[in-house]
Amino acid sequence: MKEAAVEALKRKGWEVTVSDLYAMNFNPVISRNNITGKLEDPGNSQYPAESVLAYKEGCLSPDSVAEQKKLQATDLVIFQSGTLHFCGFQVLEPQLTYSIGHTPEDVRIQILEGWKKRLENIWDEMPLYFAPRFLMNKEVQDQQKNKKFGLSVGHHSGKSIPTDNQIKARK
Q1: Residue 17 and residue 70 in contact, taking contact as beta carbons nearer than 8 Å
Q2: Number of separate domains in the chain
Q3: How far apart are CA 96 and CA 76, in angstroms?
Q4: From the CB of residue 82, how many other CB atoms can be counted at a distance below 10 Å?
Q5: Pair (126, 45) in one structural domain
Q6: Domain membership of residue 41 as a residue range
Q7: pTM flag (> 0.85)
Q8: CA pair distance 167, 171, nearest whole angstrom
Q9: Distance CA 98, CA 168 (A)
């Protein structure tokens, strides 16, 4: 998927930077190691406040700073996490594939070609809608009552995730 994305985006003339956090041995767990300077209150360290202060003072770990700079310089980030909406990102429909190791080669090729085609027009996609304040009012509940699938994985209302295709739900 990564190679297909790089190929498709470069073909459209985009500059592509890939961060393979796994290959970089990037530790995703927040800890004292993320802060290179002194803690404001070492006896009662509160990571959110300490990390904000470390950011302002330029005392975050070099790996964290490097990834933040990459994010600040980008127009498009490909993640698979709808929770980013709540951090201010516009989130597009996920690109889903299942059991890729057990998928026949012709189907894998089709999946990759579909992914490349999607990336060619990614700027034209509409962001997902997320119900405000994690609540669905009576009107939204009534609108969704007879639908086969929920609004999103996070707002599924007990309904199943689309199974008609490995890539994404068909409209």
Answers
A1: yes
A2: 2
A3: 18
A4: 18
A5: no
A6: 18-73
A7: no
A8: 12
A9: 11
